[in-house]
Amino acid sequence: MSASNQARSDRGANRGPSGGPFMMFLRGFIKHPVMVGSVIPSSKALIDKMLSKVDWDECRLFVEYGPGVGTFTEHILQRMAPDATLIAIDTNPDFTEYLNRKFRDSRLIAVTGSAADTRKIMAEAGFEEADYVLSGLPFSTLPPGIGPKIAAETHAALRKGGCFLVYQFSPKVRDFIAPHFKRIDRGMEWINVPPAQLFWAWKE
């Protein structure tokens, strides 16, 4: 096989059976609409703003809820230290399998599971505390009781001084995280479809 044909073959393998990341994302939204916040992946402006408060030099474990096709995952891996770890948790096995195909990075652990079981998943990977947890899960449309459980589990999983980073399209998410986090910084990113509410909840 020629070099050019090999390159085309490799690109095709990375795209997988979905036909590319957007189609995979769209299929995930159709299959699990209450677990996917938007049919359109996050903008670069949203990603940069959401991750701007992360101290990457002090980050050894980053946890991501609902990574989907890895829109945030890619940027987290680019910023993380060589010896840091990213645990990406998604309830949709199509997404976790896609991430494992897309990213050949030993720092990434893609797990099919629930954010409500974060500490169990972390323990199985050899960690007791997380430095940062990122979530784009649509808290207001999750099944009853799941949102509060995830918020409580996240607080328990974070180290002191750690942060829960949340981006949502509804401000109602604050009602879920406020009972557990006293300090919550808030922002807005208009360059996104739809515009997103940003929250940084700190464990003090």
Tell me what you see in this structure.
- This protein has 204 residues and is of the alpha/beta class.
- Helices cover 37% and strands 23% of the residues.
- It has helices at residues 3-15, 21-31, 44-51, 71-79, 93-102, 118-124, 146-157, 173-177; strands at residues 61-65, 85-90, 108-112, 130-135, 158-168, 183-189, 196-202.
- Strands 3-2-1-4-5-7-6 form a seven-stranded mixed sheet, with helices on both faces.
- It is globular.
Keywords:
8 helices, Rossmann fold, alpha/beta, 7-stranded mixed β-sheet
Mean pLDDT level: 85
User: What percentage of residues falls in helices of 4 or more residues?
Assistant: 25-40%
Distance between the termini: 58 Å
What is the total number of structural domains? 1
Stretches with pLDDT under 50, minimum 5 residues: 1-19, 33-39
- What is the count of helical runs? 8
Give a short account of the largest sheet.
7 strands, mixed
Taking Cα atoms only, what radius of gyration do you get, to the nearest Å?
17 Å
Number of strands: 7
Overall shape: it is globular
Strand composition percent:
15-25%
Strand-helix topology:
Elements (H helix, E strand, L loop, with lengths): L2 H13 L5 H11 L12 H8 L9 E5 L5 H9 L5 E6 L2 H10 L5 E5 L5 H7 L5 E6 L10 H12 E11 L4 H5 L5 E7 L6 E7 L2
Parallel strand pairs: 1-2, 1-4, 2-3, 4-5
Antiparallel strand pairs: 5-7, 6-7
Task: Give a short overview.
The protein is α/β, with parallel strands linked by helices and 204 residues long. The protein contains eight helices and seven strands.
